[in-house]
Amino acid sequence: MPRALLAFFAFFTLVVFARADTAAWGQVPAADFSKIRLEDFADHELEVPEYLSHFAQVANAVAERGEHRGYLDLAVNRDPKDNRPYNARIMEMQMALAYFYGVDRPWNPYRGHPAVRVRLEAMLDRWTRIQNPDGLFAEYSPNNYSLAPTNFGAMAAAQAVEILRETKAPFDEALLRRVEDALRAALFAMFTREDMRRHARDWSNQFSGSYYAALISLRHAPDARLDFDFVAAVVHASAEDQSPAGYHYEQGGPDFGYSGVHENNLRVAWPLLRARADLSRPLLAAEARWNRWLAHNHVVQPVTDGRLVYLINAGVNTRTSHALQTPRSLPLAELVAEARAFATTTDERRRELAARREALARSWGDFGKLAVPSPYSYRPGFVYGAWRQLDDYTVTSAERAKAVAALPCLAPGRFNRQLHDALPFTVTLVRRPAYYAAFNSGRIRVPRQNYGLGLLWNEKFGAALQAVAGTPWAAGVRTEGADKLHEQSSFTARTSVGGAIIAPKPGEQTLREGDLRVVYPLGDRGDKTVVFSDARVTTEITHRGAFAEQLPLIVPSDAKIETSTGRVRVQRADGASFVIETATPGARISLGEPERFAEGLNRRRMEIASEGSLRYELSFR
Q: How far is CA 401 from CA 136, 308, 329, 354, 533, in A?
């Protein structure tokens, strides 16, 4: 299009919307729940009532006039300090307006409502106008054009387009075409720009939302070039945005919390992705590697009420302190057997839905006030599952039990295994009849990480030790007067089995059998040796001057703790016990106060203070 024509079009658009500014929009009325029945909501819509109850407040916060027309001037979906007009993440709320404006359901009073329409049109118009010429959007500053706001903005815009196209609700067709053009420009930028691809390698969750956006775009506006670039991007991401060790890169390393966002991106896209073998094939291969990583880094925690709970090798997390996992919706578990160990069962889903309906019935129409300001009190992502049934696959109890029984922590006998990334970063897994352990070593990617012995577990006792990144629950040696542990800095570990040094290799490697020994330096103060034998884990420390070995213990709330000189015994009510013993002269054991972190579980920090050297053993009885 000639530049003169583009300039005229831009001027014409400004004039049209300037004139629109002069006409008052009218208020979006609050939903009247005396006229709305719970029975009219389908199971996949049970999140909707609360969002419906606050929708008018959110919609009425869309700026009506001025240069920021269409901006959501209400801090309910990002950190209040980031709720700024240049932040495209705020504009994701457009899909909530599209949902309530378009969906034709007996409970929805906003279908085709003119006061919602004018706000939605203003929001979508604004979204197209804050895009830069390269197709990107900004987040943390006016010029911070980057992957995350482009990825999630495209995902939300695609959802709005899908709803408006499918419901055929009255809308400005020219504006809708401009939104589709902006969406394609964003997708081409993410799929073809080298800087976006490099960023995606370090922050995988910030890219995979583009899958859903591309599928919706292609569904309503086929484009052979976009389709080609999309397939190439999925194949590339499935290989390069995932470590050979199996985890999806988050800030360049593993993070069990933020990778849940990537899982959800796939969950949203899967109903459309699964129909295309050229896309689903590489994604399923990547999903198998991811669940292999999860399987090695999760241990089953015994609980009394029959629930399935996992504790995680959480010291390695780069971004969150995610340390506990319960089953979740994993539709890809239909095709990836290992994922079934972490998936919700049909019976659990049925009970969950029944409990949700009962809770809604008790408080129908009384959802309290919307928290303002708040980072996430009104999250538009509810629309993905409300618009389309996503949780259409659950595993049977037998399927999950079979997958759980196959987890490495429950494997019979013994093994030594390593998962390695060239960062370098290595997780060494040790299975013995008496325990399962995870030991982490290599380059610390971010200061919050904590390497060393990260997880120690016994089938009857459960987890006895768990390090959690970014928390006081860290494991390792602290030099007297230091503000952090040696294991919160990078170190190279020398691993050997039967005297033979093991050279880590990218991916998964099963080592020879035998006692496994890990030796690593404690800065310039000494070194530490950890030996994994059949019955116990033995640690020997040499260190110039005074120091303390810190152990983040997991203690069942009903456990008894017996202490004596050089010995601590933690005994569960069912008799299973965990013992820490030292015979080092002068070593002093201390226990911190318990802190509850999950139903039936407490954390307690234990320290063994010594000077010059320390030897202690960990065992289950």
A: 45, 10, 16, 23, 29
